[in-house]
Every structure is written in structure tokens, then in C-alpha cells.
Design a protein that fits this description.
The chain is an alpha/beta fold. Helix content is 38%, strand content 15%. It is built from 8 helices and 8 strands, in the order ββααββαββααββααα. A hairpin with a 5-residue loop joins strand 7 and strand 8. The chain is globular, with a radius of gyration of 17 Å. The N and C termini lie far apart (39 Å).
Length: 269
Amino acid sequence: MRTLRRFLHVRTLAAALSAAALGEILLPCTAYADLPATAQRQRGEKKIFTDNEITEGFLKIAFGAEYHLAGRVDRIRKYDGPVRVFADGSRADRKTQLAKIVADIAARVQHLDIAMTGNSEDANVQVKLVRDRDLYRTIATFYGSDRAREIRSSLDPQCLSGFRKNEKFEIEHSDVILTVDNGDFVFLDCAYEELLQSLGPINDTASVPWTMFNDNVSMGYFGVYDQYLLNLLYDPRIKPGMTVQEVKALLPDVLTDVRAWVRKVNNLP
């Protein structure tokens, strides 16, 4: 555990928690802002990737779960309809930042209909904004005290998110818990990663150095590599419940279209 970096790097760990037979997926803790920390990372960002680098990373992150308790994790999990995000908390500045993050994700993922909503009843992604000292108390209200202790001992997260899926592996609801008082970079880094992971790509891997879904990587913005991953996941040809082999058969054609989109929105050569 990187205790010396825990306030600059948010541990990202996908925890699969079962809610009855269908299962619930739980994950811990990324953002876009004019901060020196993010600007420096963007200047050094790798933006050109081979087909193999993209597809291998996608298969590693879209399938499985780094921390798995129950429920099948060998299928594609994603929303199959509009995603509406509600922010619950008293910090107006963090709500404004969150809205900008959601708008940025919407602009960069072609087939994902995601937006903020001011009505919690209309939301299928609930974002709870809490103080750091209230994090574990909030986790306990979501998952119970026994599971909260297990999460704390296993993950020691800075932030957390989870989703519930149905028997078709369609995500039906996500919960995101973000701390608001550990600085702008931590908040933005958490918010990007938690929101994106709550959409389906839940498996962390240390073998892909360009993704925020890597415990050794802190970004604070939606990088080009992760835009490839999310655009692959939310292409209409990639369906909830698909197996690895089914996805592999489609990826060459899907990646051709995704490359054109990512190149366009990032002004890549």
C-alpha cells in the first residue's frame, strides 16, 4: 500500500459484492481542471497506441474484477440506456466540478447518453459528496457495518463506487462516494475514475501503464487511452452479457470506428 501517496493517488480496486443471486459490483476510486498536477500529466501523455495495446487493455479492464466476492465477472457490464447523475451534498463548488466532469465524459464517449439531473428520483447514478472523516460512516450506511469494515481493511479507499446489474448484465444503478475536502486534484482524480468505473470497466490492472484503472497511475483527467476503452465499451455492437470471445470477434471493426471518433474529439493527427 502506498501510504505516502494516498492523498495524491486514489487506490482503484474493483470489488464485486453480491446482492442476492445477481450480484452487485463495488469499486473504490479520476478529473479535468486547470491544475498544475493535471496540466503536467497532460503534457507528457502518450496519445498514439497500436491496435493490440488498445484491445488487450480493453479486455483486461472490461472483464473480471480485481477484488471479487461473488457474482459472475466474465461478461460485459454496461448501461443500456441513458445515464443520469445526481449529486447529493452541500459543496456547491464540488457539484460544479462534477457537472463539468460529466459533460466532458459525454463529449468524449460517442454512444453514451450521460448528463446531470437535479432530481434524485430521475438518477441512476447517485453521487454522495462527503467529508473525509465521514467516509466510512457513509460506506456503512450503503453496505452495512460488517462490509464497511471489510472494505476498510481490504481496500482502504479514498473514494468508492459500486453498481447493481440485472440478469442480462445491464447496469441498473450506481452509487459513487467522493470525499470533498482532500484537495482539488484528489477530488477530480476520484470523480473521473469513480464515474467511469461505475459505468462498467471495473477491473484494475498494473500491466497497462496508460490507464487510470491502474493503482500506480494518477491522472486527474480523461486521457486518450481511457477514451478508447470507454468508446469500445459503449459502442452499440458491444452488448451487455457478451463473453470475451464474442467481443474479440467484433473488436477489429469497432476499433476502426472508435479510432476515428477519438482522433476527431482530441484533434489527433
